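Problem: given the chain below (200 residues), write out its structure.
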Amino acid sequence: MKFYTIILSLILVLVSCKDDDKNQETSNDFQTEQDKNYEHSQASGQESGSKGTSVPEKEKTWNAPDKNQGSNTQSAEGIDMGTIYVKTDQNDANCSCYCIALAKGTNTELCLSENEMYINARYSKSGNLVNFYYINPSNKNTNEELPWKDFDTNIPIAVLTPDENGVMNLDWKGFSINGELAVDYALYGKKTLEGTYKKQ
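Solution.
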């Protein structure tokens, strides 16, 4: 009986390792295809630029020059890590609630309601935007009524995108529970966080 159990376990281990190898190959193929598509789009962009045509609005990236920006174009790394962004329509010199601090390798604290609700969030770049993900309530948080432990930590709660002249726009998505938007808690953070930001 032990012999059959050992053989069965060995077969399961071999099969799972084989599937892992296939997943890695698929991932490498996908990355190679993305690289080829990127190179192709760069080459076609250079050809169209040499003919004097402009880049269509939908295809603009941070690398594409914009007529209205002049020399203020952003690079793919245009959102500067180690920078504090302040909401443009708020006068918050002390950064008590209307700021986003992006420091490389650390999380950031987001204010959902001034002097009441604060969360820790991680962020990651995805192309030419930054996604923010909920981690947990901050030490400053005084609101214990929300179901903090139920909120998803792998679905973006906000997205920061670049705009002209170094200005950034933050779109508040809201918290999710089990992959679904938590409608009852969707407005928390919308008033304080959503809007236009500039470098401090």
